[in-house]
Structure formats: C-alpha cells, structure tokens
Write a structure and sequence with these properties.
By secondary structure, the protein is of the alpha/beta class. The chain folds into two domains: 224 residues, Rossmann fold, CATH 3.40.50; 81 residues, formyl-coa transferase, domain 3 (2-Layer Sandwich). The protein contains 17 helices and eleven strands. Helix 1 packs across helix 8 and helix 8 packs across helix 9. Pfam families: CoA_transf_3.
Length: 416
C-alpha cells in the first residue's frame, strides 16, 4: 500500500516530549510518532527501566526496541536545576508532554501541569497513572498484570475449575497506550479551536475497565454473580487437526453451512438443534467431537487453505511467522530499523495508512536486515528506538546551547 510521506502524516509538525517509562506511556507516544509527530524520549540518567528487562538480545531489550520506535533520545537529570531549565526550554517549543509519574511526583519535580502550562499555555499535558489522581489508591504503583488481577480479567481468563490466569502480552498497557494517543489527538483538535492546551488523565484502571465494557453491565434486579462473558462457545475456538491447531469462527448461518460442507457433515448444516450460535453452544458436547474428528483428516494449514474466504479461520502460528507473512508484506506492516546497540532489525511499521487510497506495491517483499537505510532515520523517514541519550547533543544545540555549554552539562552529569 502507498504510504504517506512523513511530512504528509496527520501529526507532522507536532512536537511531543515523552517523559514516561515501561510500556503504556512510551507506546502511546510511539503511536503519536507513527502519525508523524516528532517525539523526544526524555530519560533519567539510569534510563527507562524497560531497557533492563530480560531479553534474548544481548545488547538491548527487545521490548524497549518494540515500544520506542520513531523517537529521538535525550538523557536528562530533572533533579538538577540545569536539567529542569533544559526541560522548560523544550516545553516552550512543545505541543504535548506525556509522563507516567505517580501523583505528587510531578509537583516535586516542578513539572506539573500548572507549572508547565504557565510556560506554554498551548501545551497538551497527558498523565498516565495507575489508579487516577484521586481516591484511596491514587498513590499506589499500578502495573498491567496488577490491574488485570484487580479488575476481573484474570478471573475471567481462568479455565473451568482452574486458577486465575494472566493474559500475557501487556494488554492493559497497550490499550492504555491507544487511549493516550486518542486523547492527545482529541486535545490537539480542541486546541485548534480554543488556542489553549489542557490536562489529560489516562489510568490503567480506566483502561482495564474500558476493555471490558461488554462485561460491565449490571441491570436492575440482576444478581451480582452471574455469567458476564460474551464468548460464543461451541464450535468457535481452537481445535486440533492432523498437524497443528486451527481457530474456527462459524457463528453466522452462512459460515456454519460452509463449515459443515467442507467437513462433509451436511446433516448438521440445517438441523434444527444446531441452527443458532446459542443452540450450537448448548450442544457443544455433541458437535465438537464430530468437528474434531473431521478436522483430523488434514493439517491446520491445509484446512486454512481449503476454507479460504468461506469460513473465518486461522492456523495457530508463532509470532515469528509474521515477519514474512505474505499478507503482512502486502500491507507493509514491517520495516527495517536501526539502533546503536542492537544494530539493524525488523519491526512494526505503520499500523494505519494515511494519504492516497490507491494501493501500490511498497518496497520489496521480505526486505531483510541488511536493508537498513530506511531504518537509520537520518533521511527524515522513520527511526528505530534511540540509544540512551543518542540525540542529546543535537537536541540541546537546537535549543541554543553551545558546544562548550553542552560539554559542561555532560561533565556535571546533567545530560548524557
């Protein structure tokens, strides 16, 4: 698909200061960068703690690389007066600031909304917290799996008569990141009409509940403890085949009939006991063994190819298969990047396409790790995750600091 140039992306010209760490805040800023914003990741001298997370990469955390694309890196000690002054200079030119400090910390560091909006009234200021700014848990540390456990997600994930289970993949963090980018974009739109910025608060608690809006409905007169999940059950789910596993979804009458036809089970297609999702779920003990017996005749990949467009399905694959999956390549969803520590790598590219609706091939399918020119970011295209303080000198020079001043700031450990 034809990608818009960086200058044509919707947030081109917007400057974002990312003072957050871990996943939700930084990835929210990465999403803004994906839409064209110029994002500066401001890290303390010890760096974002995500850099230190376990990784099979020797020199940099895989998670850090994946979370922090399309950013420049500045290492800054905000506890020093000179470091605070640098941040104020950045704020004067910025459009957005995002942080995930606990309530009370921004005031101690003198980077709260009241202080910074006095410097730049047009600043959109987004705070990502664990539990919000008020209430008995406001100052508690909030993390993805802590909120999963608190809000019922782990309980809902549990197998029948089994213990609660975590949903791996930091789903609350990633959804919180999407809410950050959505909220910031909305605030920027409002600023176009009013001329003023505003404070935004996004919480992991709110994100975890927003993800479960279909469960969070309690009608008058209902018992507190009822089934609140919306799983269709029955045939829908993962099934074993002769080789590998296959996910099937056949909830509509059309897809149910198509599935029965492919599996040589025509007698089930119009049977009155199985002609709705609800009925098929109730008869799962009868239907699932027959479906699985039929699926055992071929491999998951063969069934997926056979079903094609007629039955929604997917062979269960490892994530590594996505690097060179033909549909991923056709969409241009992966691209080469570069990081000073990790070197060249492939990572997620644009998740949305802005610009011309015309679809044309982009690049060469399967562009490998050696094709790193686009990834280095020096041509004004896209950047890999920055090294700690990688762009400090260039950023400070654009703020008016001389080479000798920057050298003194480095020697005093204000910047790296």
């Amino acid at each position: 698909m034809q990608q818009a140039s960086p200058a044509d992306l919707p947030l081109a010209g917007i400057k974002v200061l990312d003072l957050s760490a871990y996943i939700a805040g930084p990835y929210g800023c990465a999403l803004l960068g994906d839409m064209g914003a110029d994002v500066i990741k401001v890290e303390p001298p010890e760096g974002d703690n995500l850099r230190k997370y376990p990784s099979t990469l020797a020199s940099e955390s895989r998670a850090f690389l994946g979370i922090n694309r399309n950013k420049r890196g500045l290492c800054l000690n905000l506890k020093e007066a000179a470091g605070h002054e640098i941040l104020l200079r950045l704020v004067r030119e910025a459009d957005v600031l995002v942080h995930n400090f606990r309530p009370g910390v921004p005031e101690r560091l003198r980077i709260d909304f009241a202080t910074l909006s006095a410097v730049n009234p047009r600043l959109v200021y987004c705070a990502m917290t664990g539990y919000g700014a008020v209430g008995p848990m406001a100052r508690h540390a909030g993390y993805d799996q802590v909120l999963q456990s608190m809000t019922g997600m782990c309980a809902a994930q549990a197998k029948a008569d089994g213990p609660p289970e975590v949903l791996y993949g930091s789903v609350v963090d990633y959804y919180g990141a999407a809410l950050i980018s959505n909220s910031v974009a909305a605030a920027l739109y409002r600023r176009e009409k009013t001329g003023r910025g505003q404070a935004i608060e996004v919480s992991l608690l709110g994100s975890a509940l927003a993800m479960q809006s279909a469960r969070l409905v309690w009608a008058d007169g209902e018992s507190r403890h009822i089934e609140r999940d919306m799983r269709s059950g029955g045939i829908t789910g993962i099934h074993p085949t002769r080789d590998g596993h296959l996910y099937l979804s056949a909830n509509t009458p059309h897809f149910w009939r198509a599935l029965c036809g492919h599996l040589d089970l025509p007698e089930l297609a119009e049977h009155p006991d199985y002609d709705s999702v609800k009925k098929r779920a109730a008869q799962a003990a009868v239907l699932v063994p027959r479906v699985r017996q039929a699926l055992s005749r071929a491999s998951a990949r063969e069934w997926a190819e056979r079903f094609g467009q007629s039955v929604p399905c997917a062979e269960v694959r490892p994530v590594e298969d996505m690097f060179d999956h033909p549909q991923v390549e056709a969409m241009g969803l992966m691209r080469p990047y570069h990081n000073p520590q990790a070197g060249d790598y492939l990572g997620l590219a644009q998740w949305a396409h802005f610009g011309d609706a015309a679809q044309t091939p982009v690049g060469e399918p399967g562009a490998g790790h050696g094709d790193s020119g686009a990834g280095r970011g020096e041509s004004g295209t896209r950047r890999g995750a920055p090294g700690l303080g990688e762009h400090s000198e260039k950023i400070l020079s654009t703020l008016g600091y001389t080479a000798s001043e920057i050298d003194r700031l480095r020697q005093s450990s204000v910047v790296q």
